[in-house]
């Protein structure tokens, strides 16, 4: 990778879904489109900021798409940019506001409307209205914010006051767009007509026609969609991989929610579609690859948390698709399936990245750092992406088969003659030897207990202190390890330990130990050094 540009003072604060490379003018010169969290739509050409538009709300996603071909035709097609803010999608054409679309909010349930519209009930028993709302919530009804605010009130007076203030207000649902992507309609061409795939807070995925923004399809999910991956053509066959706010990836095929799901061990922090696979990153520093049918291809454990994922396709003809992974330690890794191809290190944490054609280069990587900086890296034309890393992937020795010898004639004769014909006798001999082994082990254990060579334990039934003593070392220096446990329910203080020994044989720095206050439960470990005064002495002394 070649370092082309670095601006630590760019002040870009955005998310991966709000960073795109788009040819907004249709002249073959892509621009960098950034929907900043400061409610600004920025356009970069090269290293220069050429345009900055104000947004009405904080953006959640941007997506380029191509509308219907004009009747007169034309070689140049100018894409539109969809910016999702709240429940609205703002359409920009040639960097000018063109259209605003409001995503329809879900309908309020009839039971909830009946609760708020019953005037006699509200006048007679205002304090009991929340009881019906609680029962609706327990039954799985999606309540409005008005009902949720009522249930969040803690005191009875606050709930009564809230009902009096809002009894004439009709409860309505509102939604927020969480993610957005585009899908080709009937052709794989770069400038083919597209449709918008929108995920919303009310657990629905909607596909919009780019021509008149009519709703083509709606699918309700068990969870709120957070990431969307698309593949295929809308008019032929398509699949959607939708990751919810949790650890489950849902599959949608041709408008139908499939029973096949992908469940991970932790929360999902990224999802992309790379070729015929789904690349998913979770919060346990693991990157998974799944087939669209749900079969797991492989998994790779990363040394740091994953911040961003990006697909890198160098040549569309050869279908050479790789994956870029940005880690929290500042490292950016390039993988071809489960093989590590290369790795680059930055001084800051990368939060967003995009790969594609930018300015005059076909293979450009744009990075946005956590501190707001921006960097541009260019893939060298002499780079060999087919070269694998020495540290990536399994060792080649595992593909070499073991030289297992063939069964000899002697082995077959022993198996037939001895093992099969004398199976009962062999089993009896085995059981006899096993009993002898257990008997010898029991005798050895009893001998250790009677000789006093085992680890000692000093405690009584009524005592609240338990003392275990171990001796480590081969001599002439030893270490006396004492483990004391307070088995009672109260703190024991002013406890002391006195060690008795033969001063003619052993020497210690101190034979008296003051113990700190002993809390019930934990084990306290104390060590004392012991030196043998006479290395050579007669047995029995």
Automatic annotation (TrEMBL):
Q: Where does the chain cross the membrane?
A: none
Q: Name one GO biological process term.
A: non-motile cilium assembly
**Ranges for the Bardet-Biedl syndrome 1 protein GAE domain?**
465-533
GO terms, molecular function: patched binding; smoothened binding
Q: Which residues form the Bardet-Biedl syndrome 1 N-terminal domain?
A: 1-253
Q: Where is the signal peptide?
A: none
Q: What name has this protein been given in UniProt?
A: Uncharacterized protein
GO CC field = axoneme; BBSome; microtubule organizing center
Domain of life assignment: Eukaryota
Note the Pfam families from the entry: BBS1 (PF14779), GAE_BBS1 (PF23304)
């Amino acid at each position: 990778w070649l370092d082309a540009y670095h601006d630590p003072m760019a002040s870009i604060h955005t998310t991966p879904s709000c960073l795109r490379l788009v040819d907004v003018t249709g002249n073959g010169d892509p621009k960098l489109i950034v929907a900043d969290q400061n409610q600004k739509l920025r356009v970069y050409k090269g290293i220069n900021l050429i345009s900055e538009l104000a947004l009405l709300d904080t953006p959640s996603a941007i997506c380029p798409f191509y509308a219907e071909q004009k009747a007169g035709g034309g070689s140049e097609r100018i894409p539109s940019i969809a910016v999702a803010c709240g429940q609205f999608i703002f359409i920009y054409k040639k960097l000018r506001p063109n259209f605003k679309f409001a995503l329809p909010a879900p309908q309020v349930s009839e039971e909830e409307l009946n609760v708020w519209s019953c005037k006699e009930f509200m006048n007679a028993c205002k304090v009991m209205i929340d009881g019906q709302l609680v029962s609706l919530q327990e039954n799985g009804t999606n309540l409005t914010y008005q009902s949720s605010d009522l249930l969040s009130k803690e005191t009875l007076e606050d709930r009564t006051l809230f009902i009096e203030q809002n009894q004439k207000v009709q409860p309505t649902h509102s939604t927020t767009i969480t993610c957005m992507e585009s899908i080709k309609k009937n052709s794989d061409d770069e400038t083919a007509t597209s449709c918008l795939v929108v995920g919303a807070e009310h657990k629905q995925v909607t596909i919009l026609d780019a021509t008149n923004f009519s709703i083509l399809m709606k699918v309700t999910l068990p969870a709120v969609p957070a990431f969307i991956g698309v593949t295929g053509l809308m008019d032929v066959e398509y699949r959607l991989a939708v990751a919810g706010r949790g650890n489950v990836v849902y599959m949608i095929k041709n408008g139908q929610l499939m029973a096949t799901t992908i469940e991970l061990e932790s929360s999902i922090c990224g999802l992309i579609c790379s070729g015929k696979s789904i690349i998913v990153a979770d919060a346990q520093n693991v990157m998974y690859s799944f087939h669209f049918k749900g079969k797991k291809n492989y998994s790779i454990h990363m040394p740091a948390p994953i911040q961003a994922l990006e697909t890198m396709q160098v040549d569309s003809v050869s279908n050479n698709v790789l994956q870029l992974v940005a880690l929290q330690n500042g490292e950016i890794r390039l993988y071809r399936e489960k093989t590590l191809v290369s790795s680059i290190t930055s001084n800051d944490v990368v939060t967003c990245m995009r790969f594609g054609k930018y300015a005059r280069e076909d293979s450009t990587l744009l990075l946005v750092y956590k501190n707001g900086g921006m960097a541009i890296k260019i893939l060298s034309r002499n780079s060999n992406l087919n070269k694998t890393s020495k540290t990536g992937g399994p060792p080649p020795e595992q593909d070499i088969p073991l030289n297992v010898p063939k069964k000899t004639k002697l082995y077959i004769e022993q198996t037939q003659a001895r093992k099969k014909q004398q199976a009962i006798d062999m089993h009896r001999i085995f059981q006899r030897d096993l009993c002898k082994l257990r008997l010898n082990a029991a005798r050895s254990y009893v001998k250790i207990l009677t000789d006093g060579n085992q680890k000692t334990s000093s405690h009584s039934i009524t005592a609240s202190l338990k003392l275990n003593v171990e001796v480590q070392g081969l001599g002439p220096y030893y270490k006396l390890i004492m483990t004391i446990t307070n088995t009672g329910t109260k703190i024991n203080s002013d406890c002391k330990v006195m060690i008795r020994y033969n001063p003619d044989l052993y020497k210690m720095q101190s034979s008296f130990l003051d113990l700190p206050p002993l809390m019930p439960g934990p084990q306290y470990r104390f060590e004392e050094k012991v030196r043998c005064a006479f290395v050579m002495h007669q047995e029995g002394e």
